From TrEMBL, chain A:
InterPro entries attached to this UniProt entry: Peptide/Ni-bd, SBP_5, SBP_5_dom
CDD domains: PBP2_NikA_DppA_OppA_like_19
Protein known as: Peptide/nickel transport system substrate-binding protein
Annotated transmembrane regions: none
Keywords for the protein's UniProt record, in alphabetical order: Signal, Transport
Any matching Pfam family: SBP_bac_5
PANTHER family: OLIGOPEPTIDE-BINDING PROTEIN APPA (PTHR30290:SF9), PERIPLASMIC BINDING COMPONENT OF ABC TRANSPORTER (PTHR30290)
From TrEMBL, chain B:
UniProt region (Disordered), positions on chain: 1-22
Listed name of the protein: Peptide/nickel transport system permease protein
One GO location term (cellular component): plasma membrane
Protein family (similarity comment): Belongs to the binding-protein-dependent transport system permease family.
PROSITE patterns (alphabetical): ABC_TM1
Principal localisation: membrane
InterPro entries: BPD_transp_1_N (IPR045621), MetI-like (IPR000515), MetI-like_sf (IPR035906)
Transmembrane segments: 40-60, 131-156, 176-196, 216-234, 262-283, 303-336
Keywords in alphabetical order: Cell membrane, Membrane, Transmembrane, Transmembrane helix, Transport
Domain (ABC transmembrane type-1) ranges: 129-336
SUPFAM superfamilies according to UniProt: MetI-like
Length: 530, 351
């Protein structure tokens, strides 16, 4: 009834519009054909462009440079630093000397004061930075001379260089010791990076312009527009009409573009995992037989194929295959339902009338929470529940918002995600070390394994890469023998890009991504094809 | 000339009082100015009460403002650090302390900081308010043009097929939320036919220009206008039908005036007065419609910011937006009353 009534309304609208809109040729058409400009669509609009509030915390910040930068091949190269940092024998003191030819977008020169002010703002509570927890190892930062700074850490931390990708902001912007929530940098970034922000229409688009004084050479793509289009389907449709030069899409949607003549589809490996925590205090998930059985029962390859369109890889531990030197190849779980059932039977979990196992009056049932706004986490939770049901364990699902999740983290399981592509420490230590148990989203299941703890601490404390890798392999062996979570998958991120430029280089990505990462992580080095 | 006829026809209606010939033009003007002054004086306490109400609701909100502040960093933040940031931002201070703090800033001209936009509130408003005003004005214009045209057509040909189509579409549209209309119009005009852009203020990568904005304004403004028009169309049709049976219209017909003259010059003016009141009263619906339409069309206005501000318990921004909406409503009804009083000397100026 109603839909029939809509038709005349549409006809009327059509008449009104057709009358008022004989679209004149768009004067901006020429501009979009200029290979020195590029238009990208992003799914996510940053709340703030301030590195101290989390903007591009893993680097590739465009408006900003870190002391070190990611080179796409898992190594860190000096950026604002003029050479690799020098580390003291105990791994607690890192000294960095700075380039002397760098200026900020406002014309002021970069010196040690800016670096000191930036890192100080992270650890000084007066600034209320949202990154402070990730820099808890930093004790103080001091100026050695005009071009040298020294970081003093509270404990040996071998992964410190991975923290030095943080964008450096001018000290003038931090003069006022107040929470950064209304800092001018939030919407008008002043950095040293290859691009300057020229315009940001919030909720709509952002325009970047090449920095003509960039110390690394002026970018050849002189203007980049980033349009914000949060809805995946709308963005795909606008791509179909050729409106953009590139975008990020869920792998299942990107698939439909694989035959496109206009766009190339690329998939990037990431350190971005999804796991399900298993609370240690829960009578079911705290039982080691249940933990092992669940790890054997989940069909990780089916999740990759069915939910990620084949673009991902199974995960058994937080160590991503994208960081191969740290991975212990033996430390994986096979998909073995029979073995899972045998373990449960042996441990005394007997199947009841309703098909759900029980032991000593305790039904094998627990709740898995997921963030209601994240459809992939929801699908993974559903697949997990279905695999668990096959071995007689009942999983109830709860899609909640973040406020409701927080108080339940210690009692109920949750689907978690995250990942740092440069170093395994941030995600492994927070997920598995007992000292981090129950601190926010770190180790919410209170996993505790002394062997894992020791190896994680040792890996942090040594700067020798081979030795670190050996410790991390030890972590994985000990963890697989006594699993405390169910790691499910590592994701791949999918992108579409128009092939008009050269310079594309594949990259391993962090959890947060979009147009600052993706194929465009090094867009300042791209050039129009001739 | 018509005024006199109208007066004769309506003199017995209870809502209007005859203005005696003794009342001079000056007294009338003073009465209207008095009405404006009284309403404006009344507006301040109303806004104050609304503000405090919003503040209490925000304080009771189940949402944690820190969640928005931290964003994706929430998953790596430690509880100790979050507690420190909480204290630094003062989000756990008692309600009255926070309200007093904000009010103090307000009197010194500081509207406070919007936590969800991480910008001073004044900046958020300066960037976004003009786009909302543009959208609402265009939407209102579309609604008025549509309703006058369609209302007159329907009443004139009462019972004909055009009347039946307009009335049934009008009733159906009353039940369709603006966002459904918005999505359908995007599917048809932007995606299927490709006549108009899907969303945004300009094409991707295009600079801000009158032509660009005008093209992008068409769809949202028409959707907003159409979603507001059924009430106006149906109301105008009804009052026009009533007006057509009144003595002065019968008189005009008897004098042999053309049908066109009768409807447009004699009946319509009587029917338009209640329409003006209705438009004033429907300002809140226009604002609500704008929230939905801006959200669907990614229109960077202030209405779309309401949702974000509410989810983030961003009180300073939420408060200003609520005051603006309240003021728009009060102003809408004041505008309607003043216009009616100016046009129709028989209408009393409340008080």
């Amino acid at each position: 009834m109603r839909s029939r009534a809509i038709l005349p309304a549409i006809a009327i609208t059509a008449a009104v519009i057709a009358a008022g809109c004989t679209a004149p040729a768009d004067p901006d058409d020429d501009q979009t054909n200029d290979p020195r400009s590029m238009v990208l669509a992003d799914s996510y609009e940053p709340d703030s462009l301030n590195p101290l509030l989390g903007y591009a915390a893993e680097g590739a910040a465009k408006f900003y440079d870190g002391l070190l930068a990611f080179d796409g091949q898992r190594d860190l190269r000096p950026a604002l630093a003029d050479e690799q940092p020098e580390v003291s024998a105990d791994g607690k003191s890192w000294t960095v000397s700075l380039r002397d030819d760098v200026t900020f977008h406002d014309g002021s020169e970069l010196d040690a004061d800016d670096v000191v002010a930036t890192y100080n703002a992270l650890i000084d509570p007066a600034y209320a930075s949202t990154l402070s927890s990730e820099f808890r190892m930093l004790d103080k930062v001091t100026k050695v001379d005009a071009n040298t700074v020294r970081f003093s850490l509270k404990f040996s931390y071998a992964a410190w260089p991975a923290k030095m990708v943080l964008g450096i902001v001018p000290s003038e912007a931090l003069r006022n010791k107040a929470p950064l929530e209304d800092s001018a940098l939030n919407s008008e970034p002043v950095g040293t990076g290859p691009y300057k922000l020229v315009d940001w229409r919030k909720g709509d688009q952002m325009v970047w312009e090449a920095n003509p004084d960039y110390w690394g050479g002026v970018p050849k793509i002189s203007e980049i527009t980033v349009v914000f289009a949060p809805d995946d389907n709308t963005r795909a449709q606008r791509m179909q009409s050729g409106e953009f030069d590139g975008t990020v899409l869920p792998p299942t949607l990107a698939k439909s573009f694989e035959d496109s003549d206009t766009y190339r589809t690329v998939y990037h490996k990431s350190a971005d995992f999804r796991s399900i925590t298993l609370p240690s205090d829960h009578p079911v998930t705290g039982d080691s037989a249940v933990r092992e059985a669940l790890n054997l029962a989940v069909d990780r390859q089916a999740m990759v194929d069915g939910l990620l369109g084949g673009h991902g890889s199974p995960a058994s531990t937080p160590f991503s295959p994208a960081l191969p030197e740290f991975v212990e190849p033996e430390a994986t779980f096979d998909h073995d339902v029979a073995e899972a059932e045998r373990i449960l039977d042996e441990a005394g979990w007997r199947a009841g009338d309703d098909g759900v196992r029980a032991k000593g009056g305790q039904r094998a049932a627990f709740t898995v929470m997921y963030f209601a706004d994240d459809s992939l986490r929801k699908e993974l939770a559903q697949a997990f529940a279905s695999d668990a049901k096959d071995i007689g364990i009942e999983v109830e699902l709860a899609g909640l918002d973040r406020t409701a999740v927080q108080p339940r983290l210690a009692k109920d399981a949750i689907v978690l995600g995250g990942g740092n592509p440069i170093d395994p420490d941030p995600q492994a230590y927070d997920a598995l070390h007992s000292s981090r148990a129950g601190d926010g989203y770190a180790n919410p299941g209170h996993y505790r394994n002394d062997e894992v703890d020791t190896a994680l601490d040792r890996a942090r404390g040594t700067t020798d890469p081979a030795q670190r890798a050996a410790y991390y392999r030890q972590v994985q062996k000990a963890y697989v023998a006594d699993p405390g979570l169910v790691y499910l998958v590592f994701l791949e991120h999918a992108y579409l890009m128009r092939e008009r430029w050269s310079g594309y280089q594949p990259v391993v990505e962090p959890h947060t991504h979009g147009t600052t990462w993706g194929p465009w992580w090094n867009v300042e080095k791209w050039a129009p094809r001739t | 000339m018509e005024r006199g006829e109208v007066g004769a026809a309506h003199v017995t209606t209870p809502s209007v009082q005859p203005a005696g010939p003794a009342l001079s033009r000056n007294t009338r003007r003073r009465a209207i100015l008095g009405l404006i002054a009284r309403r404006l004086a009344f507006a301040f306490p109303v806004c104050g009460v609304v503000l405090f109400g919003v503040f209490l609701l925000a304080a009771l909100s189940p949402f944690d403002p820190l969640e928005q502040y931290y964003g994706v960093r929430l998953e790596t933040a430690s509880e100790q650090d979050m507690a420190r940031v909480r204290a630094e931002l003062g989000v756990d201070d008692p309600v009255l302390v926070q309200f007093g703090h904000w009010l103090g800033g307000l009197f010194s001209g500081d509207l406070g900081t919007s936590r969800s936009f991480r910008q001073p509130v004044a900046e958020v408003l300066a960037e976004r308010l003009p786009w909302t005003v543009l959208l609402c004005a265009a939407g209102l214009l579309v609604a008025i043009v549509l309703s006058v045209t369609l209302g007159v057509l329907a009443a004139w040909r009462q019972g004909g097929w055009l009347d039946r189509v307009i009335t049934s579409v009008g009733h159906a549209l009353e039940g369709i939320p603006p966002f459904v209309l918005a999505l359908v119009s995007i599917a048809v005009f932007a995606l299927a036919l490709g006549w108009l852009p899907v969303a945004g203020l300009t094409d991707a990568g295009a600079a801000l220009s009158v032509g660009q904005v005008a093209r992008h304004l068409v769809l949202p403004a028409v959707v907003l206008g159409i979603s507001q028009s059924p009430w106006l169309v149906l109301h105008l049709r009804q009052s026009l039908l009533t007006a057509l049976t009144e003595d002065h219209v019968t008189g005009a017909r008897a004098r042999g005036l053309s049908e066109r003259m009768v409807v447009l010059r004699h009946a319509l003016p009587t029917a338009l007065l209640p329409l003006i009141t209705l438009i004033g009263v429907r300002v809140p619906e226009l604002v609500t419609g704008a929230v939905l339409v801006e959200e669907v069309f990614s229109w960077p206005g202030v209405a779309a910011a309401v949702v974000q501000a509410a989810l983030a318990v961003d009180f300073p921004l939420l408060a200003m937006l609520t005051v603006l909406a309240t003021a728009a409503t009060l102003f809408g009804s004041l505008f309607a009353d003043v216009t009616t009083a100016l046009l129709d000397p028989r209408v009393a100026t409340d008080g």
